[in-house]
Amino acid sequence: MVVPYMAVLIICLCIKLAFTKSEIYFAVNGLYSSWADAIAPYVTDLGNGWTAVTIAVIMLLFVSYRKALIVASSFAITSLVGAQLTKYIFDAPRPKLYFKDQIKHLRFVKGIDILSYHSFPSGHTVTAFMLAVLLTYWSRNKAWGPIFLLIAILVGYSRMYLSEHFFEDVVAGSVIGFVLTTIWLWWLDNRKFIQRPGWQKALLKRN
Question: Does the structural domain 2-200 have CATH classification 3.90.1150.10?
Answer without folding.
Answer: no
